[in-house]
Specification:
By secondary structure, this protein is an alpha/beta fold. Helices cover 46% and strands 13% of the residues. It has helices spanning 20-32, 52-66, 81-94, 111-124, 135-138, 144-150, 168-176, 190-195, 210-221, 225-242, 249-257, 274-286, and strands at 4-8, 13-14, 17-18, 37-39, 73-75, 98-102, 129-133, 156-161, 181-184, 200-203.
């Protein structure tokens, strides 16, 4: 179920409000273009600036619209363990297939604190957990040893790894086993991540190029590495463009060019500058997306 190209969905806004019709259109576009799974209410979905009601509604719409056609890994993390349990409970209640739980940001917990946080959530809710390790945003890094301790809980089934260290796949395979699902959290290094034994990616770029990202991940999973490298080379300018300003401003601009959503982001993020827009347009034109 949890293999291949999973899209870290943008959350469309219009005049400051959640644009439910656009979100449904984004989801249908993803499924029609072969995306293997959906990840709503994550960082790309601007979860830090959504209200609790909006966060829940985004998860609910995604599950309802996907309607079992692809799995949904709902963003359920928080730096407040009690709040994370509440979000994880809600995701289970509406039928999400798993929850993506980010390492607690700002608090800077110890490795023992991280273990306690994840096991408290796993004990409270019988919904599979993907640990989201992103030290660049959370300031804490979940060590391989701690990841193995966290994964000792039967409800913890995988990781979204945004450390940028592709060698962690091999280290975590040795520490945890081959059944632990390892998904890259970085588009640009996903090829190397998969070559080390990863199972796919939670992708920003697949908001814009879902078919190509799906083809790339399928080629990796099937061991067609020459084809995977060729697709990766084609996608790289788009990967670079989409992260040339704080995300998700560039990817929302790209979505606007596809007629899927507005460019609107919430403060403290702002729309990307004209130079970034040019890079995004050029990369999309090169791929024949516009």
């Amino acid at each position: 179920m949890f293999r291949g190209s999973f899209t870290a969905l943008i959350t469309p806004f219009r005049s400051g409000q959640l644009d439910e019709a656009a979100l449904k259109a984004v989801i249908e576009h993803q499924i029609a273009n072969g995306t293997h799974g959906l990840v709503p209410a994550g960082t790309t979905g601007e979860s830090p600036t959504m209200s609790h009601a909006e966060h829940r509604r985004v998860i609910e719409i995604t599950v309802e619209t996907a309607a079992g056609r692809v799995p949904v890994i709902a963003g359920t993390g928080s730096n407040n363990t009690t709040e994370a349990i509440e979000l994880h409970t809600f995701a289970k209640s509406v039928g999400a297939d798993a929850g993506l739980v980010v390492a607690p940001y700002y608090n800077k917990p110890s490795q023992d604190g991280l273990l306690a946080h994840y096991h408290a959530i796993a004990d409270a809710v019988a919904l599979p957990i993907f640990v989201y390790n992103i030290p660049g945003r959370s300031i804490v890094d979940i060590s391989v040893e701690t990841m193995a301790r966290i994964a000792s809980h039967t409800n913890v089934i995988g990781v979204k790894d945004a450390t940028g260290e592709v060698e962690r796949v091999s280290r975590q395979r040795n520490a945890i086993g081959h059944d632990f699902i390892q998904l890259s959290g970085e588009d640009a290094s996903a090829l190397g991540y998969n070559a080390h034994g990863g199972h796919g990616v939670i992708s920003v770029t697949s908001n814009v190029a879902p078919a190509l990202c799906s083809q790339f991940q399928t080629a990796c999973l099937e061991g067609r590495w020459d084809e995977a490298r060729e697709i990766n080379d084609r996608l790289m300018p788009l990967h670079d463009a989409l992260f040339s300003a704080p995300s998700p401003a560039p990817v929302k601009y790209a979505a606007s060019l596809l007629g899927l959503a507005s460019t609107e982001v919430r403060l403290p993020l702002v729309e990307c500058p004209e130079g970034v827009k040019t890079r995004v347009r050029d990369a999309m034109k090169e791929l024949g997306l516009i």
